[in-house]
From TrEMBL:
Gene3D superfamilies, per the entry: 3.30.70.920, Winged helix-like DNA-binding domain superfamily/Winged helix DNA-binding domain
Pfam families, per database record: AsnC_trans_reg, HTH_24
UniProt-listed InterPro entries: ArsR-like_HTH (IPR011991), AsnC-type_HTH_dom (IPR000485), Dimeric_a/b-barrel (IPR011008), Tscrpt_reg_AsnC-like (IPR019888), Tscrpt_reg_AsnC/Lrp_C (IPR019887), Tscrpt_reg_HTH_AsnC-type_CS (IPR019885), WH-like_DNA-bd_sf (IPR036388), WH_DNA-bd_sf (IPR036390)
Protein name according to UniProt: Lrp/AsnC family transcriptional regulator
PROSITE patterns in the cross-refs: HTH_ASNC_1 (PS00519), HTH_ASNC_2 (PS50956)
Residue ranges annotated for the HTH asnC-type domain, each copy included: 5-66
Source organism, top-level taxon: Bacteria
This protein's UniProt keywords: DNA-binding, Transcription, Transcription regulation
PANTHER family reported for this sequence: DNA-BINDING TRANSCRIPTIONAL ACTIVATOR DECR, LEUCINE-RESPONSIVE REGULATORY PROTEIN
Length: 168
């Protein structure tokens, strides 16, 4: 169940999800508040869990981590114990930047970034297959990313957000 957002809350969320580095003063100015009430709103939304955390997005290509793979993973036996074991293992692997349990012919979609195909092969052999839980892996090498965003589509839940707020 989602919490009610007024127009100012919605605008604050829209701004900070696009640029977590914005100062409270800049956010307050953009939404028509002074800094103190704006800061209190942000703190309230953090306490309510609407704001989970603030992060910096890095450019994987420029860091030499431009090899990205989406892997469909099927476990040998998708029991509760094996699902828990797999998820605990994945949580410790820095190469895995997303892991989702899915319905259908496979058990997981995982998104992996690494330096190159050789590093991915090592990851596959040493970690994924090394667990002894996996019966099938279908790897899809990402060739081009047409769209990637971390921004939630707030316009779907708030009439106060009609298009992305630009941050300068």
């Amino acid at each position: 169940m989602s919490l009610e957002l007024d127009s100012i809350d919605a605008k604050i969320l829209d701004l900070i999800q696009r640029d977590a580095g914005m100062s409270v003063a800049d956010i307050a100015d953009a939404v028509g508040l002074s800094s103190s009430p704006c800061w209190r709103r942000i703190k309230r939304m953090e306490e309510q869990g609407l704001i989970e955390r603030r992060v910096t997005l890095l450019n994987h290509q420029k860091l030499g981590l431009g090899f990205e793979v989406i892997a469909n993973v099927k476990l040998t036996l998708p029991s509760r114990e094996n699902l828990d074991l797999f998820e605990r293992a994945v949580a410790d692997w820095p190469e895995v930047i997303e892991c989702m349990t899915v319905t259908g012919a496979v058990d997981y979609f995982i998104r992996i970034i690494t330096t190159d195909i050789h590093a991915y092969d090592n990851f596959l052999r040493d970690k994924l297959l090394g667990l002894g839980l996996v019966s099938d892996i279908q790897s899809r090498i990402v060739v081009n990313v047409a769209k990637r965003t971390t921004a939630a589509p707030l316009g779907l839940i708030s009439p106060f957000i009609t298009e992305p707020t630009t941050v300068e």
